[in-house]
Each structure stands twice: as C-alpha cells, then as structure tokens.
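Sequence, please.
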C-alpha cells in the first residue's frame, strides 16, 4: 500500500492521519464538517493513486465514510471497536482523536487490524427485514417462535442459536417447521 491512513469518525468532524509509504510523509488533520460533500472533496487528492487504504472503527457514522471511500477507489478497512480497544491495552492516559487514528493506521500497516465485515450496500426500500423474533436458517427456512408469544423478542437469540446448530446438518432443520419455509 502506497498510502495507509485512518479516520476517527465523530458527528462534527473526521480526524485523519495518513502515511505516504513511498516518501515517508505523515499528514494529520480534520475534515470539518463531517459530511459527504466535504469528505468527497477531501478524498479527491487520492484520485489516480494506486494502493490507498484507510481504516476506521465500526461505530456510529461509519457507513457513509466507507461508501465515500469506495466511490473514490480507496480500500476501506472497518475495524472491530472492541478488539481494537483490546489491542490498545490498559489505559494509561487520555484517549484522543490523534492517538485513535495513529493506533488504527499502525495496525493497518502492520496487517493485524481486527476487521469487521462490511455488508454490501442495499438501496433504501429494497431490504425486506424479518420481524425481530424470526431467523433465516442456512437452508432457507424461516424459524419463528410461537405466535403471540409475550417473550418472543427475548427468545430471538435462542432461535438463532438453534438455527446455527442445525444448519450444519444439511436440510434436516426443515423438518422442524415445514410450513415455515420461505417462498
């Protein structure tokens, strides 16, 4: 990677730090305000440069930053917040935006950044979410708790776990509720 960087995403600003591995130049700064237009304008500086990668934590606001990085031809790396914090170790001093971006950039460059899966973009109105108490099994069955259950929302985790445990046995899980098959 010729440019390796990181963002710390906040509501009002994006703090960045990136290293040009060819020249050794390190740059830090902020994109203010933190919106698509200003980020897109800032990312234009990397147009035409190969092997540009940026990391950011998977916290509130990550989706639009990843979408803009992809639109600019930059490889996004979404860091798992809890595992990234564990890499940081015990807190010995205050955590700042500058230390957050450096931490992400260093681990991205080292290749040991704990990454999260970036789901594909689904246009608004195209997704058909299941009710909270349903789960889709690997075989395509829809697993539902008993109808009108007052505790259905509390049992969701158990239903999903059951589906996962049965999913590895082929289509045997379809025998549980044959009427619940998804069309």
């Amino acid at each position: 990677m010729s440019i390796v960087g990181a963002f710390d995403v906040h509501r009002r600003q994006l703090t960045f730090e990136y290293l040009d591995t060819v020249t050794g130049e390190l740059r830090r700064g902020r994109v203010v305000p933190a919106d698509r237009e200003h980020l897109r304008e800032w990312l234009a500086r990397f147009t035409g440069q190969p092997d540009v990668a940026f990391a950011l934590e998977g916290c509130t606001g990550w989706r639009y930053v990843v979408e803009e990085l992809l639109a600019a031809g930059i490889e996004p790396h979404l860091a798992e917040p809890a595992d990234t914090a564990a890499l940081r170790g015990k807190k010995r001093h205050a955590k700042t935006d500058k230390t957050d971006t450096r931490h992400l950039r260093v681990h991205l460059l080292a290749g040991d950044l704990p990454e999260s899966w970036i789901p594909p973009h689904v246009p608004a109105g195209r997704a058909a979410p299941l009710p909270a108490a349903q789960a889709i099994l690997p075989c395509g069955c829809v697993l539902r708790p008993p109808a009108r259950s007052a505790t259905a929302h509390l049992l969701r985790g158990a239903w999903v776990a059951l589906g996962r445990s049965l999913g590895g046995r082929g289509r045997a899980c379809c025998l549980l509720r044959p009427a619940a098959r998804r069309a």
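The radius of gyration is 21 Å.
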